[in-house]
Amino acid sequence: MxxxxxxxxSFVRPNLPxxxxxxxxxxxxxxxxxxxPAKHASNDRKPLxxxxxxxxxxxxxxxxxxxRYYAVLxxxxxxxxxKNWDGDxxxxxxxxxxxxxxxxxxxxxxxxxCTRPLLAGSALSLGGKxxxxxxxxxxxxxxxxxxxxxxAANAPAEQVERAEPSYKPLMAxxxxxxxxxxxxxxxxxxxxxxxxxxxxxxPGRVFKTPLLSSTVLPKTNLSVPQPRHDPNQPKALxxxxxxxxxxxxxxxxxxxxxxxxxxxxxHQREGVQFLYECVMGMRCEGEGAIMADEMGLGKTLQTITxxxxxxxxxxxxxxxxxVKKALIVCPAGLVDNWRREFRKWLGNxxxxxxxxxxxNKRITNFTKGRAYxxxxxxxxxxxxxxxxxxxxxxxxxxADEGHRLKTANNKAMQAIQSLNTERRVILSGTPLQNDLGxxxxxxDFVNPGLLGxxxxxxxxxxxxIVRSRQPDASDxxxxxxxxxxxxxxxxxxxFMIRRTAEVLTRYLxxxxxxxxxxxxxxxxxxxxxxxxxxxxxxxxxxxxxxALQLINLLKKICNSPALLKSKKDAGDTSSxxxxxxxxxxxxxxxxxxxSSAKLRVLDSLVHRIYTTTREKIVxxxxxxxxxxxxxxxxxxxxxxxxxxxGSTPAKNRQPLVEKFNKSSQKNCFAxxxxxxxxGVGLNLIGASRIVLFDIDWNPxxxxxxxxxxxxxxxxxxxxxxxxxxxxxxxxxxYQRQIMKMGxxxxxxxxxxxxxSFSREELKDLFRLDERDTCQTHVLxxxxxxxxxxxxxxxxxxxxxxxxxxxxxxxxxxFESASQxxxxxxxxxxxxxxxxxxxxxxxxxxYRHIDTKHLRVEDAEKVDLLDGNGAREGSVDAxxxxxxxxxxxxxxxxxxxxxxVGFVLTKSTS
Length: 909
What we know:
Elements: E1 68-76, E2 87-94, E3 97-102, E4 108-113, E5 123-126, E6 129-136, H1 139-143, H2 151-154, E7 167-169, E8 244-246, H3 258-261, H4 266-279, E9 289-291, H5 299-312, E10 326-330, H6 335-346, E11 353-355, H7 364-367, E12 374-378, H8 379-389, E13 396-400, H9 411-417, E14 423-427, H10 436-446, H11 454-468, H12 475-492, E15 496-497, E16 511-518, H13 522-532, H14 535-540, H15 544-559, H16 576-581, H17 587-590, H18 597-612, E17 617-621, H19 624-636, E18 641-644, H20 650-662, E19 670-674, H21 675-678, E20 689-692, H22 699-706, E21 718-725, H23 729-739, H24 742-745, E22 747-748, E23 751-752, H25 759-766, H26 775-780, H27 822-834, E24 847-850, E25 862-865, E26 871-875, H28 877-884, H29 887-894, E27 900-907
Parallel strand pairs: 9-14, 9-15, 10-12, 10-13, 11-12, 13-14, 16-21, 17-19, 17-20, 18-19, 20-21
Antiparallel strand pairs: 1-2, 1-6, 2-3, 3-4, 5-6, 7-8, 16-27, 22-23, 24-27, 25-26
Helix pairs in contact: 4-5, 8-9, 10-11, 11-12, 12-27
């Protein structure tokens, strides 16, 4: 049987017989061949346009012309007749070798030699995989990690149109003009519109209606959709309109109730609009948001405004409200605070708020009943009632202090996720980008799947960013890490908003912050040296657990050596090292707190505040033993006080705060606060001064505590004092907070990971610097006169900024990926290369004061002499007082026996 001859595939060169001439090749040149007749060379023929092969073209901003990037399809080898591709991938060709990476997981699939040019449709074998080139990608897309994000990278920063089968594009129509007609009679029903003021029927005593005044527009018969509230009122807050509308429906303006909008400040109006666009799916693929405003900016009021708007309105005219049931999850100590805030802004008549507590566990009243629209519950209690919560439909979840949801295995997070609620909002005053693992968890909580799988995120973003922050990072690591960081910033800015406390400058009284370096007493320094010279110290340098125990012991000595002798540690097996070190310290030092330099400064400070002012003070510590010591001091001085720590029942905490805020100095002068128990959500505006007696490894803990008094409602200028031992462990921790070195980032929630410390780091950490100079000021490299002037200079130029030292970089506004210029990225890398030493440049905002210049007899200008009798310079007492900006503290610094050696001070006045 004669059939068609076998035709080899196009990519296989056939073995032609020797007697058959080869097939003619297509001419690719416009020049005539040498052997061709002259008639083929036409003079009027135009030459072909030379087009460069995009696959072999040098990539943008690439130093290596052979460095190429491709989007590919890959699959394992198979003998199946009908083959399918296993997945998408990225092929990187560099230096003659190709590396194949899976786009979904970020896992490397294989590598091998690759020297030939590749075009779309080209096939090759690499690492045991069949690969087909899909398209050429730019270097910027690969370096930034945009190619690994899929749909998340392609979504516009402003708005993503949510295509639905029944939706059609909205025609451009101007907003409706609402006629201001005089209402004749309110419509009946359960709506607020029935609540109108009525005039008295007869003259005489004026009747006061017990009903609420209405802000709802009366219904009219206009064909134009009518919003619930008047959008033409002055300062009306109107939400963004959706881009599409269901068939046979109309869009109406969503206007925030004037009952709330009239109280909103500019940054709060912006925050409400941002949250509304996020939960309505107008900004990204998901319907979640993260509000990371600093403490005191009104996150609670913004959230209440959002919920009230969603519960009463819908942008689709005549549709039911967007939200019917809302769940607020918060720490147990803040449940009552949320309840009071709802009552403050909306009253008890407008909205039903169900507070879940041990006395009120009947959850069906909220899930099945109609009387309650909002439920407030603590994280711990939510885990016990999550099965009952599943029986009802929750439309939105608000997670207050959302930084508690640190891991995906968190039980509270699992309880929230079991509710299957798409709209989720995290509120947290603590920046979430300090740890990229926790950052991913928070993002995946509010917008699940937006960043892909956790393993892929770790390979694609976390790994390159962490490597680029290492001191020995190569130029390639730096470029990739900075590009991935910028891409992550651009993506997360679509659903995350953060504003700093600077926006409150015009609303709140001025604030002065003092970093107080206390010189250790002789007994305190001797106890410090006794531990460092003991044989146990040398052993601790090579043992993780012992190094951590030693850190805790030195922190106690910085507060007071007497804290080492504690009855609580008597039966603790972990205190064997402590029992071995106690004999090195004299008994009189262990039995008295007189050797504590911090306690001496605090004693003098509270005495001057109590006797010379009518102000009150908050004293914060991370340890209950330290609070016990301060409590004994206040008792000995006969000063009244309140105390809130871990042993205080949750139901008693807010009444305690209210009692302190309302009482006079005589009735309650001081408030003792545990930083871990009451560091968030408390408004201690009854005090205008706060002392942070010890420092925490996590800078967010200190920032939260400092914000307790400088909040809305504060009437007096605020003074903040941060105590630390000069040259001791306190100062070393503070330096690492500022410099953002790996040592500070290795410690979370006051639990040090000593295994990440090198031996040299531990030696430096434990070293006691007993020089008269301030070690922090020396490391800063400032050549100022330490007399409080702002004309300080530093060897490293201030204009060279390291982006990793900027706290709010990941939340610096809304910036699309197209705005990220590679030139700026390269300049940033060069700037980082110039920064040879850790930066402390933020301390240049402070005034630097050596207290020896204040302890002089002449109040005017006096000449100071150094140790050799040479003239050092003159001191202007008035200028120094202006720099300190605190008369009470200035008198303390002028004391001859004052233990304060150096002060860094900054004021917003």
